Amino acid sequence: MRANAPNTSQWAFLECHTLIDRYKVGIIWSPGHMGIEGNEMADELADAGAKEGRMDNDRSAEPTISGIGTTARALANVTTSDWWRRRYTGLSAS
């Protein structure tokens, strides 16, 4: 993690809107995946993108302060729950 992480991911939000406008993308909510034309192709493309990974010089690879905080809270919760389980066997942390 870097000390110079941006405060927000606002840049990503704005970039999405720029691209949506440029390529005339329409977003429509659907109640599920069954029977939606193009869903299988969208899933395949999403999987391919996830496997491809990010470029090292890609700005989206930089952590945000919000993301760092989310990760820190998740790690603290896991650590606390693990400690609680070991310390007080048979009791619940929640």
Automatic annotation (TrEMBL):
PROSITE patterns: RNASE_H_1. Residues 1-51 form the RNase H type-1 domain. GO terms for molecular function: nucleic acid binding; RNA-DNA hybrid ribonuclease activity. InterPro entries: RNaseH-like_sf (IPR012337), RNaseH_domain (IPR002156), RNaseH_sf (IPR036397). This is RNase H type-1 domain-containing protein.
